[in-house]
Amino acid sequence: MRHLTEKPMVPRRVPYTAVRRASAEEEETGVHFAAHDDPDAADVEDNELFDMSRRSSTALEVSDNNTLYYGMTLGARNRSRKRSKKRNVILMISDGFGPASETMARNYMQKTRNFTISYQSPLDEILVGSSRTRSSDSLITDSAAGATAFSCQMKSYNGAIGVDSNKTPCGTVLEAAKLQRGMATGLVVTSRITHATPAAFSSHTASRNMEDLIAEYQIGNYSLGPMVDLMFGGGQCHFVGKSQPNGMQSCRLDDRDLWGEAQKNGYTTLSSRKEFDALDSSNAHLLPLLGTFASSHMDFEIDRDPKAQPSLAEMSGKALEILEHATRKKNAGFFLMIEGSRIDMAAHTNDPAAHVRDILAYWEAVSVVRKFVDENPDTVLISVSDHETGGFSVAKQLTSEYPEYLWNPHALEPVKHSIEHISFQLLPHQPDTGVAKGDADSDRYKLVRDKVFPEWMGIKDATHEEILAVARETDSVNLRQLLSTAISDRARLGWATHGHSAVDVNLYAYGRDADLLRGNHENTDIGNFIVQALGLDLAAITLKIRAERVVQSTQALKEAWLGRRNGLGDLDAPEHNH
After folding, report:
1. How far is the C-alpha of 163 from the C-alpha of 154, rounded, in Å?
2. In sequence order, which residues have a C-beta less than 8 Å from that of residue 399 and are 6 or more positions away?
3. Staple partner for 388: which of 34, 98, 102, 306, CB 3.0–4.6 Å?
4. CA–CA separation, 116 vs 113, rounded Å?
5. Do the Cβ atoms of 133 and 523 come closer than 8 Å?
6. pLDDT per residue as tens digits for the range 283-337
7. CA nearest 120: which of 363, 464, 426?
8. What does the longest C-alpha to C-alpha distance in the chain come to?
């Protein structure tokens, strides 16, 4: 991959702000974030000035330009430099990505690309701490509550989309950035744009399953009007009425044509790779912009056709170009949320090959954003997960004997398709009476033996029992488990669940004030950091929207569970409360 080149392990140099002595109130609350215009915070912007290996553990009070800061004389700095009021905040969310997954992906690159033991990923280089993930009603959160903690700076129940525990709308950092700072705003995801994480920043519903209403919020059908200037992702089906004769697939339960409404209200709309490539970032009339590149979720990276769908890195880069140009001559920057959505969905299926490919795609996007931060010093990048998925472990014991200490990254390298894709190809076939009787000459058996295992999964040593079990299976959940076991066992990778876990997740930050996120934080602290960095007042937004509708008029469509969705067939990617 273009950005994933080997880099030796060297002392990290990261942007930071001098740590001031905490006030009595801060000592009591444990929150020590400096506001963006704090006069006591000394700005140090040169990445090359400070070697982290020489860092003192003592936080020094900065009283004047001659104060020594971790062994550095600030008098050498340009005394006339002042902090710009213009800020860009880029929040990247790696859905379902836990610490073990980062280790696995790094090991994968080291073994399959012959990188040295000192190789660091684009995330390894900017690790600053960790985030706790519990919701208000469970030690194990879902993505809706996890994203609401980031967006509303508060804990809420699993399934909550931009609402508090009483199902009252809560103001989000995106809405406040738009209304109070005049900032441009954007959402870039690989899931449906109406899915839990992007929804929690741009809508307010009592349940994550109310995606018809979420879509209405996202194009401005509420009291605040259009709040999101740019949207890239999947999920076109929730913007298309069920009876619309325009050739687009609909999953709405009413006839409302939100796609047409968006166009009438001035949105630039696009739904193809060709239209994406043709976007002119300098076009002053481009925003607001709604781009959806799949009816439901975008494809896993391992399945993605680059001629049909842009990558997460490409969408992120284009979004940054557009938002930067839109705010270039203004004293207000932008807020952009980028989600590597399908990292999580691969883990729900316990699909290690799809999981690692989407992590690498996320790394590519991180590299793109870090380059932007380097070129725009009034920008901060925060990368964090909402939760871990799969109870994933980089080890698996296969027998009752004492286990070998090994795992095999090379088992993932030849896999060409996701388990979701493979199961979709197998399930539409009519029942094969021959294979049901154990006939090794049946068409279904031959398909699995000659194509599924050796070509699609890269498994050359599949046993007769494995082939027969996959060929016979007609239930999507059971089939995907068989495929997962075949790959995971050969790689020696373990899974504890098809759901989420309560483990803390890694926290990464880069750019202006990134150092303030060091340590272990509650997920709500991420929202607090953004609020203070931008000087936002979420309570004021909450007062404006607390009477908004949080329940849609049509039936909420429950999430799929590994391909099952209320008898509607394999419409969605495998997902369940993630």
Report:
1. 9
2. none
3. 98
4. 9
5. yes
6. 999 999 999 999 999 999 999 999 999 999 999 999 999 999 999 999 999 999 9
7. 363
8. 84
- The token duo for 432 is 């094969």
- Per-residue pLDDT at 442: 86
Cα of first residue to Cα of last residue in the chain, in angstroms, is 28
d(CA 312, CA 293): 12
DSSP 334: E
Instruction: Give dist(CA 96, CA 340) in Å, integer.
Output: 9
Catalytic residue ranges: 143
- Inter-axis angle of helices 99-112 and 352-375, to 10 degrees? 90
Closest CA to 42 of 13, 88, 91, 78: 78
Please give the Cα distance from 149 to 41 (Å, whole number): 26
334 and 321 in contact (C-beta within 8 Å)? no
Is-contact 512 377, C-beta < 8 A?
Answer: yes
Contacts of 57 (CB under 8 A, 6+ apart): none
Length of the chain: 578
Q: Rounded to an integer, what distance in angstroms lies between the CA atom of residue 29 and that of residue 156?
A: 20
How confident is the model over 543-558, as pLDDT tens digits?
999 999 999 999 887 7
Residue 523 · residue 146 · CB < 8 Å = yes
Residue burial 527-551, b: 16+ Cβ < 10 Å; e: rest:
bbbbbbbbebebeebbeebeebbbe
Cα torsion 486, 491, 497, 500 to 10°: value is: -130
